[in-house]
Structures are given as C-alpha cells and as structure tokens.
User: Fold this.
Amino acid sequence: LTYLSEDGEMGYPGNLKVEVIYEINGNELIISYKANTDKATPINMTNHAFFNLAGQAKGSINDHLLMLNADHFTPVAKGLIPLGEIIAVTGTPFDFTKVKRIGRDLNLIESNNQLSLGGGYDHNFVLNKETYGSMSLAARVFDPKSGRQMDIMTEEPGIQFYGGNFMNGSDTGKYGTKFEYRASFALETQHYPNSPNQSNFPNTILQPGETYQTKSIYKFSVVE
Assistant:
C-alpha cells in the first residue's frame, strides 16, 4: 500500500511518501513500513488492529495472559499524553515482565492515578533492547481457553497496550460485530507518543535524504 501525504496535510510539513507492505509467511503476519520526505517532519507509523484470541465477540480479554518485555513505561497526563518521564514498572500494576492476567490489577483503578486516567491500560511501554532498532520480542499474549498464542516482535523501541477501556458497542467491526467494552485489545509497536516534545525520547523527526524504515511481526500459534 502506498500513500502521498502532501505538504501541509493536517498541518504536517513535507511531501511524505509512505509504503506499507503486509506479508503472510506461514503463521506470521509481517508489516514493513517505509517513508521519505522533502521536509523535516515527524513520523511514527503503527498498526492499530484489535485482537481477542478467544475469537471475535467472545467476551472479555481480561483473562488473557500477557507478557510485555518492558521494564519501564511512560506515564501520562490527563488526555493520555506522556509527560516525558520514563519510570520502572516494578511494584506497579504496569509490571507485565512476568506473565499475568490482563485484568488482574484492574481493581486498582480507583487507587492508581495512571490506571484511573486511562480507565485501565492505555499506555506506552519502553521495550528492553540490547541494540536500538534491533528485532526483538516485545509481547506475548495467550488465551487459556482456546490455547491460541500471539508473539509480537518489532524493531520499534516501544509498544502501546490498550485494553479496550473506551469501547462501548457504538463502533462496528467486520460481520456487523460491535466493539464491546474490553472485548478486544491492541498492542501497537511504535516510537513513544509525544516524542517531538520530549528531548529524552527517541527521535521521530524524519529529515530529507533519510529513509524511515521499520518492521514488526505478529506470530500466531496454538499451545496445548
């Protein structure tokens, strides 16, 4: 798929030429992104698919087991924009370094400011990387009922975990299925949100003559 975002579209500078390639290789979905510009411009492309490994419209995803390969996350302000801080997940509801139920700590919404702001999880996690830009495991999700598992590998430095907190049945997906409250989740590989305004976040400004290029892999399996 290709797209030309012309200079000034939605207020962004530069004629940005974008290419996204979706490939299916066995049990893997590979998404490759590429872009060039003629003016310095911010770019942070991702995939916003929603998943329920139990099957479409098969109820809450809170019993899915999740592991995130991230020792840190970026806390947010009201409006869910990161503040610029990078803090450890240890001792918080955001610690998914060891597998746990997605819904295990959601009872802490009233007492945990970050959970309260998002109505649950809607935060960027800082992925553990040996080398910046290297392909590595970002997340693993497992549904105990079906045995389905999804592994996500990425070259990106972060991943946004969204637990379906704002879904209320008003949006409709394929086959007329409604997106119900916490009936699906998203795991979006990306740079950190608000990076152009935070000097300590990885750079998201693409310069003329440079090529933006990144890849993510969603791998599916059944664990007996």
Remarks:
- Residues 113-118 form the longest helix (6 residues).
- The two ends are 37 Å apart (CA to CA).
